[in-house]
Design brief:
By secondary structure, this protein is α+β, with helices and mostly antiparallel strands. The chain has 2 domains: 220 residues, Rossmann fold, CATH 3.40.50; 127 residues, OB fold (Dihydrolipoamide Acetyltransferase, E2P). It contains 8 helices and 20 strands. The strands form 4 sheets. The protein has a 6-stranded mixed β-sheet with strand order 6-7-8-3-9-10, sandwiched between helices. Strands 13-12-11-14-20 form a 5-stranded antiparallel β-sheet. Strands 15-19-16-17-18 form a 5-stranded antiparallel β-sheet, with no helix packed on it. Strand 9 and strand 10 form a beta hairpin. The protein is globular. The protein starts with a strand and ends in a 28-residue tail after the last strand.
Length: 381
């Protein structure tokens, strides 16, 4: 039976080195929960702590109401899918999938029934008599997934499972993993450094850096309303620039380069007048004739449905800007060397305190979800 995972002030140390200083999160029953972050951020370490492969030096981890800190890995009833698949090369597909059931001394009729069911769910029935060396990378990954799920684990743990596949197969397999997880309804913790992958498959994402969850929320909330500068720049591309806030009758007036000004009515109260950091996604610019920021097109990358422009700005020489346009919606395609005036979409852009680098947008929280204690940015200065 699937369970809720509760992590409370979990600490991981190696000697004098603290990898995770005190992390808390609740992973809901049946949720597809992704740990996302750069190499060395602690995401795989946390996964290993949940699995029982790494000790917990402080705090606690619970499956349901049971504390599992000192429970051996083989007694946690977890399924694990590794980066290198870890399937047995001398066994057929069927025998690989049956292996965990035989270890548990399941009755032969039940082994056959459960193996038949899971082979069908992961769509590898036709390959059941093949050896792994006659399978593609994607098919091998399906075998590894079937072997992990067939034992009916309480939790499914996946550590960079698609990193060895080519780009096209990764996209195909991430959809398959998502579909399979929803069919079986198992609580899943998935580790990746691939932002697009995380956005595509997750119910919620925990973005990690230096052992700390920078933001936890749905893919949409993390992308559109990042809690801090790190999340804004790590997830997708952000055009990061400096602006100035002054009080106005609507709330605040934001002043950017080249005399570009806009009224903002979605900011938290009592922000001191002065400089702020402004994040504009490439798709949040609109071409205009007056009142915008002047850019020069340095490079055009045509991607079929979209065109990505790399831009430079004379008034902000340090900015390496990008503009993304839907070919079907834009009036024309620009060429390198052309100048273009752009204005940010005032309802979409994000503002951050220059000192704390946390969001100044109303309602943005660090942790979100019905079972999470929400840490809001209300009153952050």
């Amino acid at each position: 039976m699937s369970v809720t995972i509760t992590i409370s002030d979990a600490v991981k140390r190696y000697g004098d080195l603290t990898i995770i200083p005190g992390l808390s999160a609740t992973i809901k029953n049946g949720e597809f929960f992704t740990l996302l972050g750069p190499s060395g951020c602690g995401k795989t370490t946390l996964l290993r702590m949940i699995a029982g492969f790494a000790s917990v030096e402080g705090g606690e981890i619970k499956f349901g109401e049971k504390v599992i800190n000192n429970l051996p890995a083989h007694k946690r009833n977890i399924g694990m899918v590794f980066q290198n698949y870890a399937i047995f090369p001398h066994l057929t597909v069927r025998k690989n999938v049956e292996y965990g059931l035989k270890l548990r001394k399941i009755a032969k009729p039940d082994i056959k029934r459960r193996t038949d069911e899971i082979l069908d769910v992961v769509k590898i029935t036709e390959y059941q008599d093949r050896s792994p060396d006659r399978l593609s990378g994607g098919q091998q990954q399906r075998v590894a997934l079937a072997r992990a799920i067939v034992i009916l684990p309480s939790v499914l743990l996946m550590d960079e499972p698609l990193s060895n596949l080519d780009a096209k197969l990764r996209i195909e397999m991430r959809g398959a993993i998502r579909d399979i997880q929803k069919k079986v309804g198992i609580t899943t913790v998935y580790v990746t450094h691939d932002q697009e992958e995380a956005l595509a498959i997750s119910d919620r994402i925990a973005v990690m850096y230096e052992g700390v969850i920078q933001q936890l929320g749905t893919p949409e909330s993390i992308y559109t309303r990042p809690y801090n500068i790190f999340v804004s720049t790590f997830i997708g591309h952000s055009n990061l620039m400096t602006g100035k806030l002054t009080p106005s009758h609507k709330g605040y007036k934001l002043s950017l380069a080249d005399g570009c000004e806009m009224e903002m009515d979605n900011l938290i109260p009592d922000i001191p007048e002065g400089e702020v950091l402004v994040s504009v996604r490439p798709e949040e610019f609109t071409v205009c004739e007056t009142g915008g920021i002047n850019f020069q097109v340095d490079e055009k990358v045509f991607l079929g449905k979209y065109v990505i422009y790399n831009l430079s700005c004379q008034s902000m020489p340090e900015l390496e800007a990008q503009l993304s346009q839907d070919v079907g919606q834009s009036e024309r395609i620009y060429s390198p060397g052309e100048t273009i005036m752009l204005k940010p979409n005032v309802q979409k852009i994000n503002l951050f305190n220059k000192d704390t680098e946390t969001s100044l947008i109303q309602g943005v929280v660090q942790h979100s979800g019905p079972e999470e204690d929400e840490t809001s940015n209300e009153g952050v200065e």
